[in-house]
Design a protein that fits this description.
This protein has 189 residues and is an alpha+beta fold. The chain has helices spanning 3-14, 21-35, 41-44, 121-124, 136-142, 148-163, and strands at residues 50-54, 61-67, 73-76, 79-82, 106-109, 115-119, 173-176. Helix 1 packs across helix 2.
Length: 189
Amino acid sequence: MSTVCLVVGAFRHEAGQAATLAELADRLNDAITREKDPGNPDHVESFVTALLVEIRPGATEASLLSRGHTAPYLLNDGHVAMVEPKTPGLPLGMDLPTVDGTTRPDTVALPLDATLLLVTDGITEARDRNGTFYDPRAALARIRPSTPRELVDALTRSVTYWTGGRRQDDIAVLALKPVPRAPELLGRA
């Protein structure tokens, strides 16, 4: 079983049971560690990067916990900012302890008109025919989508154009936009 499949299955099982993002990351890490076979050299080095994100309904912030994953981008009012983790964790499955033994999520402000864009390294490490890396921030500064879907489509077209349609790695793109909490209905007697 591939490490990615293992983590996706563990995520589906554990996401609703873990109280915090850090606990979820620990549970995912434990799932990989349990499956490692010391006699199989391919399994000894099994690891996966992950970016865990929590946005509660009506919230104006997002919690992010990076385990070696590419940093997301925050698009707001024509500005593009990379959201680097303050304390990045090691990829899931690496048994090396962090400095203080814990991984803490970062909190980022997420105004209602902002979009949080998550990408894999297939985007950030895409190269043109001369070997020049694609710059998502420059591309995102030119893109003016009105919906998250339009943003994903525009970025995908941009990186495909940059690489001439040749992909060196798989890509995944996810755009998250907060939704305002619906007003509570007032009961009448």
